[in-house]
Hints:
The protein is globular.
Amino acid sequence: xxxxxxxxxxxxxxxxxxxxxxxxxxxxxxxxxxxxxxxxxxxxxxxxxxxxxxxxxxxxxxxxxxxxxxxxxxxxxxxxxxxxxxxxx
Length: 89
């Protein structure tokens, strides 16, 4: 799901065709494996859910939409599952 969201969130013209009409510059195994392995990692910092994708990217970055979409999907999608409290000490 996260992989599909990543690919579908590129603005038109930012995901150029590469060699094969069904392949783009962002559909490489490196991108897919990184997102599959690490994309869903979250942390709780100062009682806020933080993802790898909550980056402050420049507005003209081709990755801005994809990162924002994955960040929102993880933060909104995980909140209902976090019904436990972490108690230290």
